[in-house]
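re: ur question from the group chat, yeah i did fold both. here u go
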Amino acid sequence: METASGRGEPFDIALLDLHTAEMEGTHLVDAIRERGVMQSTQLLVLSPLGHRAAYNSLKRAGVAGSIVKPVRQEYLFSMIARLCGRSTATQTSGADGRSALPIPRTENPLSVLVAEDNPVNQRVLTRMLDRLGHRYRVVADGQAAIEAVKESAYDLVLMDCQMPRVDGFEATMEIRTLAGPAGHLPIIAVTANAMIGDRERCLAAGMTGYITKPVRLGELAEALESTRRQMASVG
């Protein structure tokens, strides 16, 4: 920060962990504020849940805002936009009522197979795909997903892990045995489980990505675009 300020290019915003290995957040803020060249940098503190008292003291020391860890993309975007003086009125509202990152429709739609047995989850995913501009087909279990992949070409599969007849793990392993492009089809796990080891189990089954329920629009958009970039690099 001193080097950037010395060049006449100070950082607009600094994200500071409340607890670091070498210096507590309060001491770090004091050290920054003691150096006049850094006064223009706005400070955002990253803090664990339940540290409101510590944040209040930091706010008196000149901290501009606080974000609870784990940091959520839409809230970080909203905070940065506010500190930069930019309106977030055009942003969509997230499920928790906070501002969410605006998500544009894609100009290059993907063909997506949605394997999900729950009707409510089907509607949620398809509405999100509609909003993002992608094409899709819905099947209700893993066996139907396997047959759909054999019959038609898709860019990727959104695979629920827990389904009747054949679950997402079995379906993925079966798809990986198929010859040709179908056997290498990107498969993104969609699961309600977020325990340690769940992601590893999905990857071990042959899945290429992992998102948790309830699915958020920004998370789904990023997963799809990440898959598109992977496909482009392989192609």
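okk and heres the other one u asked abt
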Amino acid sequence: MNADEYLNKIMPTRDQVDRFLSREAFADPGPNNHGWTYDAGLGWVLKDSSRDDGIDGSRTFYSYERNGSRKRVNCADRPCRIHAYGNSFTHCDQVNDGETWEEYLAAHILEPIMNFGVGGYGVYQAYLRMMRVEAHERADCVILNVWHDDHFRNLDSWRAIRFGFRTPCGFTLPYLESDEKTGEVRERPNICATPEEVYRLTDPEFVLRTFGGDRALKDMKETNHNVGQGGAYWRPADLKQGFIAAALLASRRIVEWCEKETARRRQKFMLVLSHGMEIIRSELRGEPRWDSAFVDAVKGKPYPVIDLRDAHREEFAGMKIGVDEYLNRYYNGHYAPAGNYFQAMAIRKKLVGWLDPRPEPYRTPGDPGPGVSGPGGRGGTL
């Protein structure tokens, strides 16, 4: 399949663009675009929705506060000093509002955590959302949660190119040009910066002219162009080594930007690395880590860096079950509720020690409590 044919295969219809642009919340997941909606500066954000993707065939429900964070369930009336940013493993796709790792932690530490995760985000989009939110509603503490495909997503100018199939968020987004040879990383805005321009993705001539030379298209191995069914888009084996190096370089730069911004605002910073089932399976089988260039770069930082592979490996070492049986406890595509609880408990100790003052359950009577952050509320998006 040549580039022209490949790009034509992933083009949206006008009806799909209509659904993506609509901010109206519909009950039916299809017309509601499963909750994803256009945002010029970030690519997309989320709106109230339900999906047919929960455990045991159940439906899942998603709702949001006025500031765009996912609905707070536990301790919502208390001051909030923690904001979390990232993709669907931060947002916690495939579980209800009260089943996220943020909500499990909130119930445990008796203070809310604002969840600004958005499904489909790369590290760069998460950083941009952090910059937008923190400029108006500064938290005392910021958590950046990075999932394994997020590194590659930094370089995506049009998400559907690397995925090779249609998704509700398979549109254009702000991205980075990363030169692994010179170390230079450049920020680039969303190519379709207005709703009218999103419709140009339905024009074959515009698509070929604009994306025919896209790096993601060129640096996917030819076999991936013929897959087009999903599942292989994130695997390093499907991407050229230069693309992998550029993606990991981009994430290292973004982490440095986050360090500088949080230091400038006198905020505390934590980095959490989460992973899908295939990556954890590889870890439990003792296979080499594909992202060592990034992991090595964040070792020894003066803030908490938590790689959930370590927590899974430590727990699995004490079990007498197979790898797949172990993984099925925690995953339903994304983390199931049990997986989100696992993440909450895996980062609990470092989070408690990171907070100053410590959360109420870890303070002695008479210790001072945390300061008050900004207000929450119900409604629109940031």
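fwiw on the second one: The domain at 3-360 is CATH 3.40.50.1110 (Rossmann fold). Residues 225-232, 372-381 have pLDDT under 50 and may be disordered. idk if thats what u expected
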